[in-house]
Amino acid sequence: MNTAERASALAQTAGHFPILGRYETEDLIDLVRLELGHSEILDGFRPYATHFSQATPRSPILHIVSGNTPHAALQSLVRGLLLGARNLVKLPSAGLPEVDAFVQFLPDNLRTLVEVSRELPPSWLKEAQAWIVFGSDETISSFRSRLPGGVIFEPHGHRFSLAMIFDSSLPSEDLAAADISEFNQKGCLSPHDIYVSGDARSYAERLAQAMDRYATIHRPDPITQAEAAEIHDMRANYRFRAASDPRVQIWESAGSLSWTVIFEEELWFAASCLNRVVFVKPLPDDLPSSIGPALFSLAAIGIWPATPAEAEQASLLRPSRICPLGRMQLPPLSWHQEGRQILAPLVQWVDFEPHIG
Are 7 and 154 within one domain? Predict the structure, then answer.
């Protein structure tokens, strides 16, 4: 299959998976052009500066994926298949049904390019020419220490996201509730904190109502006992603080752990325990100096309203992505994940200089 044929097949397969957003054949072809310079440069020699070049995938590609964000695993696999590489997919021990289903929807000539396993065969580590690893910082470090020389390493470790509301009078609470709640807030694009210009406390109260509406329609995924204990502990801590500190207030889902909204005037970024627990804070004039260490681990910022002027302000925090609130969980195919190109590192080049004369 050439690039256009692979793109068409992948777009058709992706259509069965709403968590991927909308993938069109043209979008996939354009991604190749954007990152590699020519939409057909994987198919043979094409003009490149004063000569000709061809890109070939580093193959096979090893994907170490995690269970909390199945869309990230599918996106990684789509990229490998778009390049025409063989793909070795190490699933979490509990499996990932979305990946299994995606592979079954692929046409035969793409399905043969995918191997899936819940274990990690030692042979995969030896033969893979590129490793794409999703997971905790400990997981990233473990695989980095085992990396053979000459193998491309693309890590995707723990990252944080946040939102910035520049006009709290504009309705945006339902958009924020969707971004917070999707995937039980466990993805790197899930906001932990929302910084609000204007009356942040009032916004927090309206957000709590929106979280309740969202949870009524989209029930949270089941959580473990350990996760439940973390939510109970965080709620108890902030209830205690709110009882004596007027700068703190908490809203909770009645009779369940479905959602929690915490307002506090402390500007320092607060990491959520996840599972739909979010902090609302006032938006300071100088957020970069107020946010704390999370400044160096930002993935995305959802903004509202989403205009160039607001995006310029958000860009001071140097995230890899700025988007409208309500779309934080739907990155475009061409997103520079963690500020890096996503296809270019996975190919190698052959240049041809023809005889002239």
Answer: yes
DSSP string, 288-327: HHHS-GGGGGEEEEEEES--HHHHHHHGGG--SEEEETT-
The residue whose two tokens read 């939409």 is 39
Domain check: are 96 and 188 in the same one? no
**Element of type H or E holding 97:** helix 97-105
As a whole number of angstroms, the distance between CA 173 and CA 157 comes to: 29
Dump pLDDT digits (tens) for 328-339. 998 888 889 888
Q: Strand, coil or helix: what is 287?
A: helix
Three-state SS at 172: coil
Contact 109, 1 (CB under 8 A): yes
Domain that holds residue 209: 160-324
Residue 242 backbone zone (phi > 0: left; psi -120 to 50: alpha; other: beta): alpha
**Which CATH number goes with the domain that contains 272?**
3.40.309.10
Same domain, 347 and 259: no
For residues 99 and 107, give the distance between their C-alpha atoms in angstroms, rounded to a whole number.
15
Rounded Cα gap, residues 180 and 302, in angstroms: 11
**pTM score, whole prediction:** 0.88
Say yes or no: 211 and 104 in one domain: no
Domains in the chain, number: 2
User: In this structure, what CATH number is given to the domain that contains residue 43?
Assistant: 3.40.605.10
Give the tokens for residue 213: 């509406």
Three-state DSSP class for residue 195: strand
* Strand, helix or coil for residue 152: strand
Q: Positive or negative, the Cα torsion across 222, 301, 155, 42?
A: positive
Residue 357, pLDDT score = 66
Distance CA 119, CA 116 (A): 9
Q: Does pLDDT of 158 surpass 90?
A: no
**Do residues 140 and 92 share a domain?**
yes
Asked if 175 and 152 sit in the same domain, the reply is no
Please tell me whether the peptide bond between 60 and the residue prior to it is cis, using omega within 30 degrees of 0. yes
| First-to-last C-alpha distance (Å) of the chain | 35
Q: Residue 258: phi, psi to the nearest 5?
A: -60, -35
Q: What is the pLDDT of residues 114-133, one digit of tens each?
A: 999 999 999 999 999 999 99
- Identify whether 315 is part of a domain: yes
Task: Please report whether residue 126 resides in a domain.
Answer: yes
